[in-house]
Design brief:
Blueprint: E1 2-6, E2 12-17, E3 23-30, E4 43-52, E5 56-65, E6 72-80, E7 86-90, E8 94-103, E9 108-115, E10 118-123, E11 129-130, H1 133-145, E12 155-157, E13 165-173, E14 178-184, H2 191-207, E15 212-216, E16 226-229, E17 234-238, E18 246-254, E19 257-262, E20 269-275, E21 278-282, E22 299-302, E23 305-308, E24 311-314
Parallel strand pairs: 12-14
Antiparallel strand pairs: 1-4, 2-5, 3-4, 5-6, 6-7, 8-9, 8-13, 9-10, 10-11, 13-14, 15-16, 15-22, 16-17, 17-18, 18-19, 19-20, 20-21, 21-22, 23-24
Helix pairs in contact: 1-2
């Protein structure tokens, strides 16, 4: 395996082998001969040699850092056969996925990047959250289901359309292939179904980081007013020690808003704006709560506490 760089600011490479018991690794820089002076900017090769130790299969990640070309990762499947011969097969996985949708509606932008073997997702320039690879596997399934690779090169606009919509899509794969598309009131085949599926999946992936307990920064009903968002999409809230009522229901996220739907006779539904690790109450479109009537803009901050039937349980 070899890569090209240059002296004086060229890309630097590092190799990570998931199962290091299968092979040994050596590397060297190749440039002319030992007596040749090295001029600034001269190109050279970085060579990596894998030597089989025992039969097996693992993954290899090659990371590139460069102030000029940018950072990136390429992944391979490494196999060692019974004769200790080593083979490498390039993995075609997502390394970056950017999707923006706007126009008459509030703009939505999603950015997924692969950083040090971990997928990070940001929505509308909010701080990126690490997401489970199961989401990126599903995202890659959607690229196939809706044939997003076929959108590459799409660049069309329709003029004189009121309340229109525009989009941009950029996909980078670990094998170096890319997809770029843009449209303004003109869209590839299947666009609206694909856009809806992408928004639902990416919002769900990002919202996974919302799970936990949030405490009202104002005064509760005789104690802490807390809301707990559970991983299964349910929630509970407890307004304070003077209340015996524990509210519950289901929650979801859309357009950076948290919607809470109470599942009881009260039917009180409430909306919060998501701001990093805070939930900010939106009075418009909310029914408010039973005992504590929140003002617009009331803040709940994420804590390291879990709430169960009115009792605080600190994480150990």
């Amino acid at each position: 395996m070899s890569f090209t760089s240059f002296f004086g600011g060229g890309p630097e490479y590092s190799v990570n082998i998931e199962d290091q018991t299968l092979v040994s690794l050596s590397s060297r820089i190749v440039y002319g001969d030992a007596q040749t002076p090295v001029p600034p900017g001269a190109e050279y090769m970085v060579e990596y040699t894998f030597t089989g130790v025992k039969p097996g299969r693992t993954t290899v990640t090659v990371s590139r850092t460069s102030p000029i070309a940018g950072n990136g990762e390429t992944r391979y499947i490494l196999e060692v056969d019974a004769d200790l011969n080593v083979s490498l097969t390039l993995l075609r996985e997502l390394s970056a996925f950017r999707f923006t949708r706007g126009g008459y509606m509030a703009p939505q932008s999603f950015e997924l990047t692969l950083q040090n073997g971990e997928y990070m997702l940001s929505i509308n320039d909010e701080p990126a959250r690490a997401i489970d690879k199961s989401f990126t596997d599903r995202l890659q399934d959607l690229t196939i289901e809706y044939e997003l690779d076929s959108w590459d090169g799409f660049n069309e606009s329709a003029q004189y359309v009121l309340d229109g919509e525009d989009f941009s899509l950029s996909i980078e794969y670990t094998d170096g292939t890319t997809v770029d598309a843009y449209g303004s009131n003109s869209f590839p085949t299947g666009y609206f179904d694909a856009a809806a599926a992408l928004e639902e999946l990416l919002t769900s992936a990002w919202a996974g980081g919302l799970e936990g307990t949030y405490r009202y920064t104002g005064e509760g009903f005789g104690g802490d007013f807390t809301i707990t968002l559970n991983p299964d999409g349910t929630y509970t809230y407890y307004e304070g020690a003077l209340s015996s009522y524990i509210g519950s229901g289901r929650w979801n996220v859309s357009y950076m808003l948290l919607y809470m739907y109470e599942e009881n006779d009260l039917g009180q539904n409430n909306t919060f704006r998501i701001d990093k690790d805070r939930l900010i109450f939106s009075k418009a479109g909310s029914d408010n709560f039973l005992h504590v009537k929140l003002p617009d803009g009331a803040v709940f901050e994420k804590t390291n506490m879990q709430k169960q039937v009115g009792k605080d349980i600190s994480e150990q």
